[in-house]
Specification:
Layout lengths: L3 E5 L10 H10 L4 E4 L16 H10 L5 E7 L6 H14 L4 E5 L18 H20 L2 E5 L4 E6 L12 E4 L3 H10 L2 E4 L11 H21 L8 E5 L13 H12 L5 E5 L11 H14 L2
Parallel strand pairs: 1-2, 1-10, 2-3, 3-4, 4-7, 7-8, 8-9, 9-10
Antiparallel strand pairs: 5-6
Helix pairs in contact: 2-3, 3-4, 4-5, 5-6
Length: about 300
């Protein structure tokens, strides 16, 4: 099974001060896709520069030609399906059909309260996520949509001419719980995981692999329930959040070993963070570029 290698570029640099060059270099290095986080601010970057995902991806689309682009991930925390659909159709047009929407339920970080609301409970996040994804699917595939749900409404929302990609741009659904996995099976062209967060601090790489194997088994059950072949769904691992942490980026051999173990689980895409000095994503840029240029050939 072939394995694609992608990267995620956090939007913490001004476009004129290294932002543009990172996206262009990602294409030069041969990455399948380059994603960014869709947050208003994030963790240790909260008090520093942080730019919007959709404008950043639009700018990246204008300075690249082949690289796929996307979010990992967009959530309902501060997004509404009607306005988001319009932005995504515009981005898909500017990029000539190179956009993937990574979408997840969101969490309890800064985004959860930035609009002045109280954090949602896990149950409410799941409820909103299900309605959010279903309405977004409708908005991106129909010219005019009217809808009234528990959390979201649309009144004659127009989305002409629709996506360049038909019937719509692909969804990569981040999920580990049963409801989210059912959404991935129903609406996703890909499924995304970061592993089991409970293992990050004190788990072992072996425990992480087993936990992810169990996630994939549950995804298979959700696909069976939806009448879908699980092989039709791409499987994406966003790295940096398993007990391995940054070790896979210490050398080409370390990465090939890490990626090979996860390819055996059925993953079709591995996403690594673009190095950021003095952060959890610090890595040697020369080694990172070597991995980008040479790892895929060793994993065929």
């Amino acid at each position: 099974m072939s394995l694609r290698l992608s990267t995620v570029i956090l939007p913490y640099r001004r476009w004129s001060e290294g932002g543009r060059e990172a996206w262009q270099r990602a294409e030069e290095l041969g990455f399948h896709a380059a994603y960014t986080y869709d947050h208003l601010s994030w963790r240790s970057f909260r008090d520093g520069p942080w730019f919007g995902a959709v404008p950043t991806l639009t700018a990246a689309a204008a300075v690249t030609d082949r690289l796929r682009l996307g979010t990992l991930v967009t959530s309902p925390n501060f997004r509404h399906p009607v306005t988001l659909a319009k932005e995504l159709i515009s981005l898909d047009d500017v990029s000539d059909g190179r956009v993937t929407l990574g979408v997840g339920a969101g969490g309890t970080g800064f985004d959860a309260t930035a609009l002045g609301q109280d954090p949602w409970t896990p149950r409410e996040r799941a409820d909103r996520f299900a309605e959010f994804v279903g309405l977004l699917d409708q908005l991106l595939t129909e010219d005019s949509v009217s809808y009234r749900g528990e959390f979201y409404s649309a009144h004659e929302a127009r989305n002409i001419p629709g996506c360049v990609q038909r019937p719509r741009l692909p969804f990569a659904v981040a999920a580990t719980g049963p409801r989210g996995l059912r959404l991935a099976a129903r609406f996703g062209q890909a499924w995304v995981t970061t592993g089991d967060p409970k293992l990050y601090e004190s788990g072992t790489p072996e425990q992480s692999v087993q936990a992810i194997r169990e996630q994939i088994e549950k995804l298979g059950d959700a696909c069976t329930e939806a009448g879908r072949d699980t092989a039709s769904l791409d499987k994406v691992l966003l790295t940096g959040f398993t007990p391995d942490r940054a070790r896979p980026l210490e050398s080409l051999d370390a990465f090939v070993d890490f990626a090979g173990r996860h390819r055996e689980l059925g993953f079709t895409e591995i996403v690594v963070h673009w190095p950021i000095p003095d952060s959890d994503f610090a890595a040697d840029m020369k080694v990172f570029e070597q991995i980008a240029m040479e790892a895929e050939a060793q994993l065929r």
